[in-house]
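Cytochrome c oxidase subunit NDUFA4
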Amino acid sequence: MIKTMFQHAKKHPGLIPQFFFMTLGITGASLYLIRLARGPHVTLWDKNNNPEPWSKLNPTYQYKFVAINTDYKNLKKEGPDF
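Tokens:
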């Protein structure tokens, strides 16, 4: 297969970038699938000292990236007392 690729590349030099980017894409996809197969790397929370970190957030804490019309300081507190 590789020998055939080299023969085609010698006859048609315009195929060299196509072979390069195809190899790059296949390699990148393979590395990404290997990364996914190794396990879930979603969070690195400390499960011993703080098993539920989201429960310690204040209800008025602004954790959104953009809040155009919402003033989080004047929100009614709807959660457990801290």
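Residues 16-37 form the longest helix (22 residues).
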